[in-house]
Every structure is written in C-alpha cells, then in structure tokens.
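Q: Please design a sequence for this.
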C-alpha cells in the first residue's frame, strides 16, 4: 500500500511541476498541495428532516447537468464531515474507529474525501463511472459516491463484530447522503448491483478495502 501511495505522489508531483527529489522529502506537503478545498458546508437549510424523509425516493434517471463544488462538498460533508472535537463526524462510528472511506467519481476523475480540512484528494483523472457497474444509473449520474470499508482497521478495535459495525456505519452514511440530496433538490439511489472486483480495480483500492455501497446522485430526469 505504501508503494502505491508513493507512486501516486510522484505522479502528482510531475503533474504539478514538482521534482521527484522534492516529492521524496516532502510527500505530505505535495499531497496537500494537490488537494481540492471544498466550500464550507451549510449548517442550516430550508428543508426540514421530516420533509426530507417524506420526499426521499429512489431516483435512477438523471439529467446531464453537473453539480457545483458547493453541492458536492455539502453531500460529502453530510456523509463524513467533521462536526465536533476529537474528529466526531456526521455519522456515528462504533468506538470512533471510522473505518470508512468515501470516494467520489465524476467525469473529471476519481476523488477521495478527506474529512480533515474538508477537501478532496484526486486519485485518478479517468472517468470511472461506467467501470463501476453495468447499471445505467451509475453510468449516467454526474456524481457517484462509493462507500468503502477498511475491515482490517475495524477488526483491530472491534474484533469479530467488525463486519457488522462497518455495515451499520455504511448505512448511516448512505442515509445522510440520500437526505442531503433531497434537501438540495437532487435525486439519489442505493446500488448494490456491482462486482467487487470491478470497483476495486476502478478505484485502485487496497487489499483490505471493501466496497459497500454505490450511490449515484444528480438532478432527477422528469417526463
């Protein structure tokens, strides 16, 4: 995993005109320089929790209208944003292990959400939406979220109940995304129809990382 990260940082260094020697001595700084800062999330809205619950429906057909960086950031924050001291997040985690990673896939590439600093790290510049699943909702949505669980990290703290807690936590995160989508006048749907190997390859996941959910999000197509 370390070698894969090092290669990614070298590639980012080349992309941003940073020499390999500088990357080797300042990998953390180079990675942060390549991150995309997201607009601050809104903590108030015009749609109540009750209204969002009542309006939530599975939406599988989307227009081609892209989402703004503000919308993308708000959705990512709703899923895994930090809301309190000690790194507490919008979704609860057993023993505060936080074994989930949130990936975002658009036509511009593959990104990983970094709750610390509310930013995105670019993983790849390739449009991987069609590679995730054969379902048209995944392919056509302007934004796909993939919730990934690190079971090894969870087992180190949670033992033989790790898989249960990871799946429960993924459900919390998914519902947050769905309700936030409603509040933004967007549609979304939970997708489980994918092959793990396809998602692992498309996102370049490590051996201990398991894809749990795909959630396409976009403007609902009407008519």
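A: Design:
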């Amino acid at each position: 995993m370390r070698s894969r990260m090092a290669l990614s940082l070298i590639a980012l260094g080349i992309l941003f005109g940073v020499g390999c020697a500088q990357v080797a001595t300042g990998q953390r700084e180079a990675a942060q320089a390549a991150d995309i800062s997201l607009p601050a999330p809104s903590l108030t809205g015009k749609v109540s929790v009750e209204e969002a619950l009542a309006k939530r429906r599975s939406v599988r057909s989307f227009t081609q209208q892209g989402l703004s960086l503000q919308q993308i950031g708000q959705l990512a924050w709703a899923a895994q944003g930090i809301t309190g001291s000690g790194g507490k997040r919008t979704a609860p985690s057993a023993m505060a292990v936080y074994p989930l990673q949130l990936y975002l896939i658009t036509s511009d590439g593959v990104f990983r959400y970094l709750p610390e600093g509310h930013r995105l790290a670019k993983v790849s510049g390739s449009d991987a939406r069609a590679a995730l699943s054969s379902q048209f909702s995944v392919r056509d949505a302007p934004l796909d979220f993939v919730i990934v669980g690190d079971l090894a990290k969870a087992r180190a703290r949670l033992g033989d109940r790790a898989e249960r807690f990871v799946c429960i936590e993924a459900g919390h995160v998914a519902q947050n995304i769905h309700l936030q989508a409603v509040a933004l006048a967007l549609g979304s749907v939970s997708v489980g129809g994918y092959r793990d190997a396809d998602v692992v390859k498309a996102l370049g996941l490590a051996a201990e990382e398991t894809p749990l959910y795909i959630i396409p999000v976009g403007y609902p197509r009407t008519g």
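Q: Thanks. Anything notable?
A: The CA atoms of residues 91 and 173 lie 6 Å apart. Confidence is low (pLDDT under 50) at residues 1-32.
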